[in-house]
User: Which sequence fits this backbone?
């Protein structure tokens, strides 16, 4: 039964909702006659995730809500209103456009262009061979070099990538997971060569292997050794690069794989809990390493559901850090996050509509209190963005920041009956999942039992069926369609692969093979023991051992992971 | 003698791990009464051709979003020819730039389904192409 067929009183009673005398009168005198005359458009209104939405939210929906306890003030727990007292009045979010294609030189050119256009941080996309720890000339790299991101096979490529970009001033985010330790070591080597102080440089490595098993699937090693590598980077970062985010616990890919908003939130935060657990088991003090954890969420199309998700995320994290882990530092309590608008919401059809989608999603991220933001380009359902499309995406953020007025006040939606109710519901839904995964023995166990994978596949299938049945409308796809001309897109040709292969051949001939062999052997040996592998990886990187060689030195110890494919 | 179900191999070639589409299609085809074998991730054309032969499938569906289609598809078609399986239609779903479509069709790809395709459209295509009458009886 839906809201329109059930009486309001039945629904209220079922939800233990107690509308005021005034609201009951309104229902009788104003609402019922209206419904009798013209029924509502749908029998049931739901978010894009299928979460039910009421007709109207009033004080009755916030009966158990306490403004001091649940909303608070910005910069203080529970951080519902944001983690800084002045939020975007003090400092705008970092405009960080994800970019990477072709060779390191190609991407360096795009980076420097974006910086001249007012972008305030860098974000690197790596190609699939790099993400999988293969050099560009590996047989499995064929056809994939430089396609989905930039090809990085050695420190030489990394030097070219950041040529003339001062790492002491620009913060860089790197979307790299299984081989994160290796790519980060290359980055630190470039910083050292530039004379930048490791204690002062800042940036982020994604380094979130758990969501790889759950959603993105770019994993190399089995969970145990992968988690060891992650904790090695935590420990190394805590000691040597205190301003660097050694992980970006990511819900983005979980959502792209088809999860609901609540699943995205819950699985991401439960992943965060897993990392903290493993860090503690290594003996790292929570208030020393956990402040270096950052988060990364998707901003999808359902405007208020997303805002509620961001607000709920902060609330769950501070409770977790305080109550579960006994953290004492506000730096540990405050959940900082990057946002990317939803790639999976972009349509190949009528691609200019994507500009509008992205603007709305970006607005949700800003109202949700994001620390940094990537806005997708209109052509990304087809290919990596052209320079024109990437610029327009950046301009979208600049218009939000400087023209819309939304950054003039902190948490403008705070206190809204609807937004506060939805924040509560999203939080409650996420806690349920978190407790379920606790009961399964933690996230690594849940993953090995395909639990989150199955939940996501289920949600993704239901959404597709709803679209196929037109229960959910996607403009230009299942409604309002039109004949159209193909879009001009960026093409990456195979010459990048040939150049990379030639460069690698040269590199292997020119470097000291003896030194490379010696340091790879040392890494291999260390991997067999328990030592922190970061220093060994760094040593190997410095003498131009390649990404593939370094990953192989560990592959031979750790083995590789094969998932149980579920459909 | 019962009518044999249409057998479909759904494969993810290349290094890409984005399997949302492959999984949705696998389930939709299964719900439409077909037998679906999903290879899992990171299959080489050699592995896909071998699986298609071993499973005696009627259709091969490839899910490709990485841009590697121009390398992977012709290689698979060549391997199928070597195995005298050129009559098994190969269909692709994923991100394929319009400019690449003519050459892929020329090479022998039976159909290309771009983002936004309703699952029913793929079900209908397979039915029309290989059955249900065409489904070999067991």
Assistant:
């Amino acid at each position: 039964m839906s809201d329109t067929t059930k009486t309001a009183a039945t629904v209220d009673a079922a939800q233990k909702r107690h509308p005021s005398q005034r609201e009951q009168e309104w229902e009788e005198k104003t609402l019922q006659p209206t419904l009798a005359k013209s029924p509502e458009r749908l029998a049931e209104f739901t978010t894009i995730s299928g979460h039910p939405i009421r007709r109207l939210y009033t004080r009755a929906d916030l009966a158990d809500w306490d403004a001091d306890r649940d909303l608070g003030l910005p910069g203080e727990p529970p951080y519902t209103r944001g983690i800084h007292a002045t939020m975007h009045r003090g400092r705008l979010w970092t405009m960080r456009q994800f970019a990477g294609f072709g060779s390191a030189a190609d991407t360096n050119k795009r980076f420097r262009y974006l910086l001249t256009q007012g972008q305030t941080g860098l974000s690197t996309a790596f190609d699939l061979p790099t993400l999988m720890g293969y050099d560009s000339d590996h047989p499995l790299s064929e056809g994939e070099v430089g396609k989905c991101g930039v090809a990085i096979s050695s420190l030489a490529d990394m030097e070219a990538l950041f040529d003339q970009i001062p790492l002491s001033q620009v913060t860089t985010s790197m979307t790299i997971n299984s081989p994160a330790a290796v790519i980060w070591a290359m980055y630190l080597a470039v910083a050292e060569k530039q004379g930048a102080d490791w204690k002062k440089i800042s940036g982020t490595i994604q380094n979130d292997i758990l969501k790889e098993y759950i959603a993105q699937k770019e994993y190399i090693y089995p969970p145990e050794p992968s988690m060891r590598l992650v904790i090695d980077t935590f420990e190394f970062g805590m000691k040597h690069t205190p301003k660097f985010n050694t992980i970006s616990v990511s819900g983005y890919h979980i959502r792209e794989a088809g999860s609901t908003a609540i699943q995205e939130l819950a699985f991401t935060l439960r992943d965060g809990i897993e990392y903290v657990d493993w860090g503690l088991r290594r003996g790292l003090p929570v208030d020393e390493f956990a402040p270096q954890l950052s988060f990364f969420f998707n901003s999808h199309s359902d405007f208020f559901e997303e805002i509620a998700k961001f607000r709920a995320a902060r609330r769950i994290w501070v409770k977790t850090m305080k109550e579960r882990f006994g953290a004492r530092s506000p730096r540990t309590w405050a959940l900082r996050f990057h946002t990317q608008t939803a790639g999976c919401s972009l349509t190949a059809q009528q691609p200019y509509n994507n500009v509008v989608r992205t603007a709305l999603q970006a607005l949700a991220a800003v109202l949700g209190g994001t620390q940094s933001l990537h806005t997708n380009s209109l052509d990304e359902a087809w290919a990596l963005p052209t320079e024109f499309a990437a610029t327009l995406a950046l301009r979208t953020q600049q218009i939000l920041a400087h023209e819309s007025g939304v950054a003039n006040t902190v948490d403008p939606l705070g206190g809204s009956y609807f937004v506060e109710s939805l924040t509560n519901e999203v939080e409650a839904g996420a806690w349920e999942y978190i407790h379920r995964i606790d009961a399964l023995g933690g996230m690594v166990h849940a993953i090995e039992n395909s639990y989150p994978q199955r939940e996501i596949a289920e949600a993704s299938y239901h959404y597709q069926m709803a679209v196929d049945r037109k229960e959910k409308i996607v403009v230009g796809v299942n409604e309002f369609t039109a004949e159209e001309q193909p879009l001009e897109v960026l093409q990456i040709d195979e010459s990048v692969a040939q150049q990379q292969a030639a460069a690698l051949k040269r590199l292997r001939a020119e470097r000291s093979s003896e030194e490379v062999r010696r340091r790879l052997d040392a890494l291999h040996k260390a991997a067999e023991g328990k030592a922190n592998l970061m220093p060994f990886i760094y040593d190997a990187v410095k003498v131009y051992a390649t990404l593939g060689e370094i990953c192989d030195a560990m592959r031979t110890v750790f083995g590789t992971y094969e998932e149980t494919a579920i459909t | 003698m019962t009518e044999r179900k249409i057998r479909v191999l759904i494969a993810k070639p290349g290094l890409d791990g984005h399997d949302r589409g492959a999984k949705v299609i696998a389930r939709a085809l299964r719900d439409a009464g077909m037998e679906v074998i999903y290879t899992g991730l990171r299959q080489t054309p050699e592995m896909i051709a071998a699986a298609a032969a071993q499973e005696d499938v009627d259709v091969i569906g490839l899910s490709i979003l990485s841009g590697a289609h121009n390398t992977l598809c012709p290689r698979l078609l060549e391997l199928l020819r070597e195995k005298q399986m050129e009559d098994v239609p190969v269909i692709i779903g994923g991100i394929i730039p319009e400019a690449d479509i003519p050459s892929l069709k020329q090479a022998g790809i039976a159909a290309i389904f771009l983002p936004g395709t309703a699952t029913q459209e793929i079900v209908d295509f397979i039915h029309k192409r290989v059955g249900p009458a065409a489904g070999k009886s067991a």
Q: What stands out?
A: Chain B touches chain A at residues 10, 14-20, 22-24, 26-28, 30, 36, 38-42, 44, 66-68, 70-72, 95, 97-99, 114-116, 118-120 (CB under 8 Å). The beta strands of chain B are 7-11, 35-38, 59-64, 90-94, 111-113.
